[in-house]
Design brief:
38% helix; TIM Barrel; binds fe (iii) ion; alpha/beta; 17 helices; binds N-(iminomethyl)-L-glutamic acid; 8-stranded mixed sheet; globular; 8-stranded parallel sheet; Urease, subunit C, domain 1
């Protein structure tokens, strides 16, 4: 791939210079008017005036019409590797059953585990690519994908190998995470501690050997794993060099405290977090991740994003796309709706799905438009970036670039 100049853009919203933590006013956004980009071998070399850059003697891709360029979106929390559907659960919930009641009766996550175990690795790869491509068309250029519907060494490996294969076969960057600690598998003959000991002893070394992931996640909740058992599991994972991320404070508190204590890179969900948890998170380096798609799928309150930002915390926003709690999988739409309910500035919404999500994944080469960053770009045909958020996700990108390659 040689050098190419792309533009002109009425506005390039770069997200350069914005902080990872705390509130951000729209006035702080760097907006380059009549801008252009010089892309070299998949990376941004220069951001500046299109008229200047076009004179550089490089190949020029000149766009017709009025365009706004944003950093490619990053979805830092998904479960898009799964088999089956849980439309039945959705209907049951809307008829009065709760998510935890369905789980207690043996449905919920366990239902997806059964369907995912029945699927071949190839079928899982196909499902991931289909969902990743839909995300890509909606401007998402990097996607985290969790295992967690296998719940045995062999089945978790099948999922993580499928994610790795889908990453190679698709244009999107997929970041894998092991969520073997999702719930206690019904067919495991033992207790919660015995299961997590088994996973850390028998699965973790293979994850390292096959380079399947360097991230470990767990669901801390009444129907899943307790704070104390999970803390020990995380400490073991940390000793082996894994980064930690947590499904925390979704229905009850406890998880965020564990996340902060073990130095997790992110604590996700936080719908149930109160002032104490918000304070703890805000003082830490753990990125707080709101998952508005789960609130919408379950019909529960949103994560207190405004309070987290005002306390000085870092707020990423992710889709949680999964067959149970968050089947919609539309990141921009969900982030905009969260923005409207939580009174987040457009700058905070954009930050949540770009460089703050990158921070939640430990990535430093994407999420902003600046020299040295991957040329991951989401381009809309409109005349002001405010229009994109105003349409709450209904305005779709006109073009998407992944590592300098125009995908569509
Ligand atoms: O993030 N809360 C736990 N795990 C997922 C849901 C998984 C499922 O219901 O299949 C979540 O909401
Ligand atoms: Fe999740």
């Amino acid at each position: 791939m040689g050098k190419q100049v792309v533009g002109p853009f009425k506005q390039i919203v770069t997200a350069a210079g914005l902080p990872v933590k705390g509130a951000i006013k729209d006035e702080s956004l760097e907006v380059i008017k009549n801008g252009g980009l010089l892309i070299d071998d998949g990376f941004i070399q220069e951001v500046g005036s299109f008229d200047q850059l076009r004179k550089s003697g490089n190949e020029v891709l000149e766009l017709e019409g009025t365009h706004i360029c944003l950093p490619g979106f990053i979805d830092s929390h998904t479960h898009i590797c799964f088999g089956g559907s849980r439309a039945k659960d959705y209907a049951a919930r809307n008829n009065g059953k709760t998510y935890l009641e369905i789980a207690k009766e043996g449905g919920g996550i366990w239902d997806t585990v059964t369907k995912t175990r029945e699927a071949s690795k190839e079928e899982l790869v196909e499902g991931i690519i289909k969902r990743a491509n839909r995300h890509l068309e909606e401007g998402v250029t990097t996607i985290e994908v969790k295992s967690g519907y296998g719940l045995s060494v062999e089945e978790e490996l099948k999922m993580l190998r499928a994610i790795k294969e889908a990453d190679v076969k698709s244009d999107v960057d997929l970041i894998p995470t092991c969520l073997a600690a999702h719930i206690l598998p019904k067919d495991f003959d033992g207790d919660h501690k015995a299961y997590l000991d088994h996973i850390s002893t028998d699965l973790f070394p293979i994850l390292k050997q096959e380079k399947l992931t360097n991230r470990i996640d767990a669901f801390i909740e009444e129907e899943a794993f307790s704070s104390s058992i999970t803390s020990n599991y995380f400490l073991r994972a940390k000793e082996m060099g894994f980064a930690i991320t947590v499904h925390a404070d979704q229905f009850s508190t406890g998880g965020s405290e564990v996340a902060v204590n073990v130095g997790a890179i992110s604590a996700d969900h936080l719908e149930a977090s109160g002032d104490k948890e918000i304070e703890l998170l805000a003082k830490s380096d753990t990125i707080a991740t709101a998952l508005p798609g789960a609130s919408m799928g379950l019909g529960v309150a949103f994560t207190p994003g405004r309070k987290i930002l005002d306390a000085g915390g870092a707020l990423a926003i992710a889709s949680d796309w999964n067959p149970g709690s968050a089947p919609m999988g539309d990141l921009l739409m969900q982030a905009c709706v969260l923005g409207s309910y939580e009174k987040l500035s457009n700058a905070e919404v954009l930050s949540g799905i770009t460089f703050r999500a990158a921070a939640a994944l430990g990535l430093n080469d994407c999420g902003r438009i600046a020299s040295g960053m991957k040329a991951d770009l989401t381009i809309f045909e409109t005349n002001h970036y405010n229009e994109i958020f105003y349409h709450q996700g209904k305005m779709k990108p006109k073009m998407v670039f992944k590592s300098g390659k125009r995908i569509f």
